[in-house]
Amino acid sequence: MSANTPALSLQYLLRPVQATTETPALLILLHGVGSNERDLFGLAPDLDPQFTVVSARAPLALPYGGFGWYQVQFTPQGPKIDTAAALRGQAQLNQFIDQAQAAFDVPPERTLLMGFSQGAIMSLNTMLTNSESIGGVVAMSGRLLPDAQAHYVTPERLEGFPVIAVHGTFDDVLPIGDGRAVKALLETLPVDFSYHEYPMGHHISDASFAEIQRWLGEWLAR
Fold first, then answer.
1. Computed from CA positions of residues 220, 134, 94, 167, in that sequence, does the dihedral angle turn out positive or negative?
2. For residue 165, what are the β-bridge partners?
3. Is the terminal CB of the chain with fewer CB neighbours within 10 Å at N or C?
């Protein structure tokens, strides 16, 4: 981290805003479990120059390598997690969001979370539990955080909230049923929701990223 990069509670990589704009915007990237801040940062050159892009490293160093917001065990019955630990990770993410907004002078309504896999889970959960802290969510190949419903905000606080979710029909890590469960829940809420499925596995395809780029452009123009 360079001397000109503000110190925050989590490690991160920064791509500063690259275009003059009257309405600064902040895009926080959240990687998947077992990865690190360099993963999604590879997308930074192709993200709109109006964004300050911050790619965060999740706080928990995992015994099998990489980092996460909480530990997860992948079993034949599906992922097994400790929801209480995940909610502690959510509190750390909330703190980081607040710090980044202050450091880069961007208000919550001009802040987006863009997460992949566990990063998408945390992005969606931030929207559902702490919606006033951000202005939109991009969820790639994620799922809902189990047993977190007691912490959800009331539906009226989500009126018009912008969110896009993309998922692969051949995903063998978080199967397409997880993406469709996100769709089923969000379609019951008063959010501004866009959902797309692609013939891909647990990754970001050219087609899914192109749709995300289109959506980001529309969000910036709001």
1. negative
2. 139, 195
3. N
Give the angle 13-44-186 at the CA atoms, nearest 5°.
100
At 26, the amino acid letter reads L
How far apart CA 5 and CA 75 sit, in angstroms, is 40
3-class SS of residue 14: strand
Architecture of domain 12-220: 3-Layer(aba) Sandwich (3.40)
Answer whether 140's CB lies under 8 Å from 208's CB. Answer: yes
158-167 in b/e form (b: 16+ CB < 10 A) is beebbbbbbb
- Separation between Cα atoms, residue 171 and residue 200, nearest integer Å: 7
Mean pLDDT across the chain: 95
With a CB cutoff of 8 Å and minimum separation 6, the contacts of 210 are none
Residue corresponding to tokens 């980001």: 216
Question: pLDDT, tens digit, for every residue of 64-86?
Answer: 889 999 988 877 877 788 888 89
Locate the domains of the chain by residue range: 12-220
- Residue 197 identity: E
- Residue 43 above 60 pLDDT? yes
Residue 167, token pair as written in the block: 């998922």
**What are 189-216's pLDDT values in tens digits?**
999 999 999 999 999 999 999 999 999 9
Distance CA 171, CA 27 (A): 25
Beta strands in the chain (DSSP E): 12-15, 25-30, 51-56, 60-61, 67-68, 72-75, 78-81, 111-116, 137-140, 162-168, 192-198
**Count of residues making up the chain:** 222
